[in-house]
Amino acid sequence: MKLSRPRRQSGAALLSAMLTVALVASLAAAALWTQWRQVEIEIAERGRAQNQWLMAGALDWTRLILAEDARSAQSIDHLGEPWALPVQESKLSTFLSQDQQWRDGDPDIYLSGQISDAQSRLNLASLVEDGKPTAAALAAWTRLFERLELPMAELDALTRLWPQALAAAQPASSNKTPAGDALSKAPLLPQRLEQLVWVGLSTDTIARLRPYATVLPAPTPVNLNTAAAPVLEAVLPGLDGASARQLVARRNQKPWASLQEAADAMGPAGRLLDDRQHAVRSRFFEIQGRLRAGSHIQDEVALLEREGTQVRMLWRARTPAQQVTAGSGSLQSLK
Protein backbone atom coordinates (compact mmCIF):
# COMPACT_ATOMS: atom_id res chain seq x y z
CA MET A 1 0.00 0.00 0.00
CA LYS A 2 2.82 2.42 0.61
CA LEU A 3 4.17 1.99 -2.94
CA SER A 4 0.88 2.92 -4.65
CA ARG A 5 1.19 6.69 -4.10
CA PRO A 6 4.64 7.08 -5.81
CA ARG A 7 3.42 4.92 -8.71
CA ARG A 8 0.29 7.05 -9.09
CA GLN A 9 2.40 10.21 -8.99
CA SER A 10 4.80 8.80 -11.58
CA GLY A 11 1.90 7.90 -13.90
CA ALA A 12 0.38 11.37 -13.51
CA ALA A 13 3.72 12.99 -14.28
CA LEU A 14 4.11 10.85 -17.40
CA LEU A 15 0.58 11.73 -18.53
CA SER A 16 1.25 15.42 -17.95
CA ALA A 17 4.47 15.19 -19.94
CA MET A 18 2.67 13.47 -22.82
CA LEU A 19 -0.08 16.09 -22.83
CA THR A 20 2.53 18.83 -22.80
CA VAL A 21 4.37 17.26 -25.75
CA ALA A 22 1.08 16.85 -27.66
CA LEU A 23 0.13 20.48 -26.97
CA VAL A 24 3.54 21.78 -28.08
CA ALA A 25 3.38 19.60 -31.21
CA SER A 26 -0.11 20.88 -32.02
CA LEU A 27 0.95 24.51 -31.55
CA ALA A 28 4.05 23.96 -33.66
CA ALA A 29 2.01 22.28 -36.41
CA ALA A 30 -0.51 25.13 -36.34
CA ALA A 31 2.27 27.72 -36.51
CA LEU A 32 3.93 25.83 -39.36
CA TRP A 33 0.64 25.55 -41.28
CA THR A 34 -0.06 29.26 -40.77
CA GLN A 35 3.39 30.15 -42.06
CA TRP A 36 2.97 27.81 -45.04
CA ARG A 37 -0.43 29.33 -45.79
CA GLN A 38 0.97 32.85 -45.71
CA VAL A 39 3.78 31.86 -48.04
CA GLU A 40 1.27 30.27 -50.45
CA ILE A 41 -0.90 33.39 -50.39
CA GLU A 42 2.11 35.59 -51.02
CA ILE A 43 3.18 33.40 -53.94
CA ALA A 44 -0.34 33.46 -55.40
CA GLU A 45 -0.60 37.24 -55.04
CA ARG A 46 2.81 37.71 -56.60
CA GLY A 47 1.84 35.45 -59.49
CA ARG A 48 -1.46 37.27 -59.96
CA ALA A 49 0.23 40.66 -59.97
CA GLN A 50 2.88 39.35 -62.35
CA ASN A 51 0.20 38.06 -64.73
CA GLN A 52 -1.66 41.37 -64.60
CA TRP A 53 1.48 43.30 -65.50
CA LEU A 54 2.22 40.85 -68.29
CA MET A 55 -1.27 41.23 -69.77
CA ALA A 56 -1.01 45.01 -69.42
CA GLY A 57 2.27 44.92 -71.32
CA ALA A 58 0.69 42.81 -74.07
CA LEU A 59 -2.18 45.30 -74.40
CA ASP A 60 0.28 48.19 -74.63
CA TRP A 61 2.09 46.29 -77.35
CA THR A 62 -1.13 45.95 -79.37
CA ARG A 63 -1.72 49.69 -79.02
CA LEU A 64 1.70 50.32 -80.52
CA ILE A 65 0.93 47.97 -83.40
CA LEU A 66 -2.32 49.79 -84.21
CA ALA A 67 -0.65 53.19 -83.90
CA GLU A 68 2.12 52.13 -86.29
CA ASP A 69 -0.50 50.82 -88.70
CA ALA A 70 -2.17 54.24 -88.68
CA ARG A 71 1.17 55.84 -89.65
CA SER A 72 1.52 53.63 -92.71
CA ALA A 73 0.81 54.92 -96.19
CA GLN A 74 -2.30 52.75 -96.55
CA SER A 75 -5.63 54.34 -95.70
CA ILE A 76 -7.48 51.04 -95.40
CA ASP A 77 -7.64 48.17 -92.91
CA HIS A 78 -7.65 44.57 -94.11
CA LEU A 79 -6.78 41.07 -92.94
CA GLY A 80 -3.38 41.06 -94.60
CA GLU A 81 -1.90 43.66 -92.26
CA PRO A 82 0.43 42.82 -89.34
CA TRP A 83 -2.19 43.63 -86.69
CA ALA A 84 -4.47 40.88 -88.06
CA LEU A 85 -1.90 38.11 -87.57
CA PRO A 86 -2.62 36.11 -84.39
CA VAL A 87 0.12 35.58 -81.83
CA GLN A 88 0.47 31.85 -81.33
CA GLU A 89 1.16 30.51 -77.86
CA SER A 90 4.66 31.69 -76.97
CA LYS A 91 6.70 30.67 -73.93
CA LEU A 92 7.63 33.58 -71.69
CA SER A 93 8.86 31.74 -68.60
CA THR A 94 12.52 32.63 -69.03
CA PHE A 95 11.69 36.36 -69.07
CA LEU A 96 9.74 36.40 -65.81
CA SER A 97 12.25 35.49 -63.10
CA GLN A 98 13.97 38.42 -61.44
CA ASP A 99 17.43 36.98 -62.02
CA GLN A 100 16.58 36.08 -65.63
CA GLN A 101 17.14 32.40 -64.87
CA TRP A 102 14.68 29.55 -64.92
CA ARG A 103 14.22 27.84 -61.56
CA ASP A 104 13.03 24.31 -60.96
CA GLY A 105 9.41 24.19 -59.88
CA ASP A 106 8.39 27.46 -61.57
CA PRO A 107 5.33 26.99 -63.86
CA ASP A 108 5.68 27.42 -67.61
CA ILE A 109 4.20 30.74 -68.77
CA TYR A 110 2.66 31.05 -72.23
CA LEU A 111 1.03 34.06 -73.92
CA SER A 112 -1.24 34.10 -76.97
CA GLY A 113 -3.68 36.56 -78.42
CA GLN A 114 -5.19 38.27 -81.43
CA ILE A 115 -6.38 41.68 -82.62
CA SER A 116 -9.69 41.59 -84.46
CA ASP A 117 -11.55 44.34 -86.25
CA ALA A 118 -14.63 45.19 -84.20
CA GLN A 119 -16.14 46.86 -87.27
CA SER A 120 -16.10 43.58 -89.17
CA ARG A 121 -19.39 42.80 -87.39
CA LEU A 122 -22.85 44.30 -87.19
CA ASN A 123 -22.85 47.01 -84.55
CA LEU A 124 -25.97 47.17 -82.42
CA ALA A 125 -25.31 50.86 -81.77
CA SER A 126 -26.08 51.48 -85.46
CA LEU A 127 -29.56 49.98 -85.17
CA VAL A 128 -31.37 53.03 -83.78
CA GLU A 129 -31.55 56.57 -85.08
CA ASP A 130 -33.75 59.27 -83.51
CA GLY A 131 -35.13 56.74 -81.06
CA LYS A 132 -36.31 54.22 -83.69
CA PRO A 133 -34.66 51.35 -85.59
CA THR A 134 -33.67 52.41 -89.10
CA ALA A 135 -35.02 50.41 -92.01
CA ALA A 136 -31.60 49.52 -93.43
CA ALA A 137 -30.13 48.41 -90.08
CA LEU A 138 -33.24 46.42 -89.14
CA ALA A 139 -33.17 44.67 -92.51
CA ALA A 140 -29.50 43.78 -91.99
CA TRP A 141 -30.17 42.29 -88.55
CA THR A 142 -33.15 40.40 -89.92
CA ARG A 143 -31.04 38.86 -92.70
CA LEU A 144 -28.35 37.92 -90.17
CA PHE A 145 -30.88 36.21 -87.89
CA GLU A 146 -32.33 34.36 -90.87
CA ARG A 147 -28.86 33.36 -92.09
CA LEU A 148 -27.97 31.95 -88.64
CA GLU A 149 -31.45 30.47 -88.12
CA LEU A 150 -31.96 32.36 -84.87
CA PRO A 151 -35.38 32.96 -83.21
CA MET A 152 -37.05 35.98 -84.78
CA ALA A 153 -39.00 36.51 -81.55
CA GLU A 154 -35.71 37.43 -79.86
CA LEU A 155 -34.96 39.95 -82.62
CA ASP A 156 -38.39 41.49 -82.02
CA ALA A 157 -37.59 41.79 -78.32
CA LEU A 158 -34.20 43.28 -79.15
CA THR A 159 -35.63 45.96 -81.44
CA ARG A 160 -38.23 46.82 -78.80
CA LEU A 161 -36.00 46.92 -75.72
CA TRP A 162 -32.82 48.37 -77.22
CA PRO A 163 -34.37 51.82 -77.96
CA GLN A 164 -35.78 51.86 -74.42
CA ALA A 165 -32.36 51.12 -72.96
CA LEU A 166 -30.83 53.88 -75.09
CA ALA A 167 -33.44 56.41 -74.01
CA ALA A 168 -33.08 55.44 -70.35
CA ALA A 169 -29.31 55.91 -70.57
CA GLN A 170 -29.77 59.57 -71.55
CA PRO A 171 -29.61 62.23 -68.79
CA ALA A 172 -32.83 62.02 -66.79
CA SER A 173 -35.31 64.91 -66.90
CA SER A 174 -36.34 66.58 -63.69
CA ASN A 175 -40.02 66.46 -64.71
CA LYS A 176 -41.93 63.30 -63.91
CA THR A 177 -43.98 62.22 -66.93
CA PRO A 178 -45.69 58.95 -67.89
CA ALA A 179 -42.94 58.46 -70.49
CA GLY A 180 -40.33 59.03 -67.81
CA ASP A 181 -42.01 56.49 -65.57
CA ALA A 182 -41.91 53.97 -68.42
CA LEU A 183 -38.22 54.63 -69.00
CA SER A 184 -37.51 53.97 -65.35
CA LYS A 185 -38.52 50.37 -66.02
CA ALA A 186 -36.32 50.06 -69.12
CA PRO A 187 -33.40 47.60 -69.08
CA LEU A 188 -29.84 48.71 -68.51
CA LEU A 189 -27.91 49.65 -71.63
CA PRO A 190 -25.56 46.78 -72.58
CA GLN A 191 -21.92 47.69 -73.12
CA ARG A 192 -20.75 44.26 -74.32
CA LEU A 193 -22.25 41.47 -76.37
CA GLU A 194 -22.74 39.06 -73.47
CA GLN A 195 -24.92 41.68 -71.75
CA LEU A 196 -27.58 41.46 -74.48
CA VAL A 197 -29.48 39.08 -72.23
CA TRP A 198 -30.76 42.33 -70.69
CA VAL A 199 -32.59 43.17 -73.93
CA GLY A 200 -34.17 39.85 -74.79
CA LEU A 201 -31.47 37.60 -76.25
CA SER A 202 -30.70 34.15 -74.89
CA THR A 203 -27.20 32.95 -74.12
CA ASP A 204 -27.38 30.47 -77.02
CA THR A 205 -28.30 33.24 -79.46
CA ILE A 206 -25.49 35.46 -78.16
CA ALA A 207 -22.99 32.63 -78.62
CA ARG A 208 -24.13 32.20 -82.23
CA LEU A 209 -23.95 35.94 -82.87
CA ARG A 210 -20.52 36.44 -81.31
CA PRO A 211 -18.45 36.14 -84.55
CA TYR A 212 -20.82 38.44 -86.46
CA ALA A 213 -22.20 41.06 -84.03
CA THR A 214 -20.87 43.52 -81.48
CA VAL A 215 -21.82 46.45 -79.24
CA LEU A 216 -19.70 49.57 -79.76
CA PRO A 217 -19.95 52.97 -78.07
CA ALA A 218 -21.07 54.73 -81.27
CA PRO A 219 -22.68 53.88 -84.62
CA THR A 220 -20.14 52.55 -87.11
CA PRO A 221 -20.12 51.27 -90.69
CA VAL A 222 -19.10 47.69 -91.46
CA ASN A 223 -15.58 47.27 -92.84
CA LEU A 224 -16.06 45.31 -96.07
CA ASN A 225 -12.37 44.34 -96.10
CA THR A 226 -12.63 42.39 -92.84
CA ALA A 227 -16.28 41.28 -92.61
CA ALA A 228 -17.10 37.58 -92.78
CA ALA A 229 -19.39 36.20 -95.47
CA PRO A 230 -22.54 36.12 -93.25
CA VAL A 231 -22.00 39.79 -92.38
CA LEU A 232 -21.60 40.70 -96.06
CA GLU A 233 -24.88 38.89 -96.74
CA ALA A 234 -26.53 40.92 -93.99
CA VAL A 235 -25.30 44.38 -95.06
CA LEU A 236 -25.65 43.84 -98.84
CA PRO A 237 -29.26 43.19 -99.89
CA GLY A 238 -29.62 40.57 -102.58
CA LEU A 239 -26.25 38.93 -101.91
CA ASP A 240 -26.46 35.15 -101.43
CA GLY A 241 -24.09 32.91 -99.53
CA ALA A 242 -22.12 31.66 -102.53
CA SER A 243 -21.57 35.18 -103.86
CA ALA A 244 -20.51 36.39 -100.41
CA ARG A 245 -17.91 33.64 -100.11
CA GLN A 246 -16.57 34.45 -103.57
CA LEU A 247 -16.25 38.11 -102.62
CA VAL A 248 -14.36 37.18 -99.45
CA ALA A 249 -11.92 35.02 -101.44
CA ARG A 250 -11.30 37.80 -103.99
CA ARG A 251 -11.03 40.45 -101.31
CA ASN A 252 -8.49 38.46 -99.31
CA GLN A 253 -6.26 38.31 -102.39
CA LYS A 254 -6.57 42.03 -103.07
CA PRO A 255 -8.27 44.25 -100.46
CA TRP A 256 -10.55 47.01 -101.70
CA ALA A 257 -8.84 50.39 -101.55
CA SER A 258 -12.11 52.35 -101.62
CA LEU A 259 -15.86 51.91 -101.55
CA GLN A 260 -15.96 52.55 -105.27
CA GLU A 261 -13.54 49.70 -105.89
CA ALA A 262 -15.65 47.45 -103.67
CA ALA A 263 -18.80 48.50 -105.55
CA ASP A 264 -17.18 47.66 -108.89
CA ALA A 265 -16.20 44.22 -107.60
CA MET A 266 -19.68 43.47 -106.25
CA GLY A 267 -21.59 44.19 -109.42
CA PRO A 268 -25.29 44.98 -108.94
CA ALA A 269 -25.04 44.55 -105.14
CA GLY A 270 -22.43 47.30 -105.03
CA ARG A 271 -24.90 49.95 -106.14
CA LEU A 272 -26.34 50.03 -102.61
CA LEU A 273 -23.05 50.89 -100.89
CA ASP A 274 -22.92 54.10 -98.88
CA ASP A 275 -20.39 55.47 -96.40
CA ARG A 276 -22.86 55.40 -93.49
CA GLN A 277 -23.24 51.63 -93.58
CA HIS A 278 -20.07 50.49 -95.35
CA ALA A 279 -16.36 51.33 -95.12
CA VAL A 280 -12.87 50.01 -95.87
CA ARG A 281 -11.20 51.44 -92.75
CA SER A 282 -11.86 50.79 -89.06
CA ARG A 283 -11.79 52.76 -85.84
CA PHE A 284 -12.56 50.12 -83.18
CA PHE A 285 -10.54 46.98 -82.51
CA GLU A 286 -11.00 44.11 -80.05
CA ILE A 287 -8.06 42.50 -78.28
CA GLN A 288 -8.22 38.92 -77.00
CA GLY A 289 -5.37 37.67 -74.84
CA ARG A 290 -4.71 34.39 -73.05
CA LEU A 291 -2.10 33.72 -70.37
CA ARG A 292 -1.40 30.12 -69.38
CA ALA A 293 0.66 29.40 -66.28
CA GLY A 294 0.98 25.68 -65.77
CA SER A 295 -2.57 24.32 -65.74
CA HIS A 296 -4.18 27.71 -65.01
CA ILE A 297 -5.56 29.83 -67.84
CA GLN A 298 -6.55 33.51 -67.71
CA ASP A 299 -8.39 35.17 -70.60
CA GLU A 300 -8.84 38.90 -71.11
CA VAL A 301 -10.64 40.97 -73.73
CA ALA A 302 -10.36 44.70 -74.36
CA LEU A 303 -11.84 47.25 -76.75
CA LEU A 304 -9.57 49.89 -78.27
CA GLU A 305 -10.47 53.02 -80.20
CA ARG A 306 -8.06 54.51 -82.73
CA GLU A 307 -8.28 58.18 -83.65
CA GLY A 308 -5.49 59.04 -86.03
CA THR A 309 -2.35 57.69 -84.39
CA GLN A 310 -3.84 57.87 -80.89
CA VAL A 311 -5.09 54.55 -79.49
CA ARG A 312 -6.98 54.44 -76.22
CA MET A 313 -8.58 51.63 -74.24
CA LEU A 314 -12.34 51.89 -73.76
CA TRP A 315 -12.82 48.88 -71.51
CA ARG A 316 -11.02 45.76 -70.36
CA ALA A 317 -12.65 42.62 -69.00
CA ARG A 318 -11.18 39.52 -67.42
CA THR A 319 -12.95 36.19 -67.49
CA PRO A 320 -12.89 33.86 -64.45
CA ALA A 321 -9.66 31.89 -64.22
CA GLN A 322 -9.86 28.34 -65.54
CA GLN A 323 -7.89 25.19 -64.95
CA VAL A 324 -7.06 22.50 -67.47
CA THR A 325 -8.20 19.12 -66.20
CA ALA A 326 -5.37 16.60 -66.46
CA GLY A 327 -5.96 13.92 -69.08
CA SER A 328 -9.17 15.39 -70.52
CA GLY A 329 -7.92 18.78 -71.74
CA SER A 330 -11.20 20.39 -70.66
CA LEU A 331 -11.41 23.67 -68.77
CA GLN A 332 -12.93 24.17 -65.36
CA SER A 333 -13.66 27.55 -63.79
CA LEU A 334 -11.80 28.35 -60.60
CA LYS A 335 -14.04 29.81 -57.91
Q: What is the gist of this entry?
A:
By secondary structure, this protein is α+β, with helices and mostly antiparallel strands. It is 42% helix and 19% strand.
Describe the structure.
- This protein has two domains: 39-120 and 283-333, Pantoate--beta-alanine Ligase, Chain: A,domain 2 (2-Layer Sandwich), CATH 3.30.1300; 122-277, no CATH class.
- Helices cover 42% and strands 19% of the residues.
- The chain contains eight helices and 13 strands.
- It has helices at 4-71, 135-148, 152-169, 178-183, 203-209, 229-235, 241-253, 259-266, and strands spanning 87-91, 109-117, 122-123, 128-129, 132-133, 213-214, 222-223, 278-279, 284-293, 296-307, 310-318, 322-324, 331-333.
- Strands 1, 2, 9, 10, 11, 12 and 13 form a seven-stranded antiparallel β-sheet that branches. It has a two-stranded parallel ribbon with strand order 3-6.
- Helix 6 (229-235) packs across helix 7 (241-253).
- The longest helix is centred in the N-terminal third of the chain and has 68 residues, at 4-71.
- Mean pLDDT is 83; it is low at 173-178.
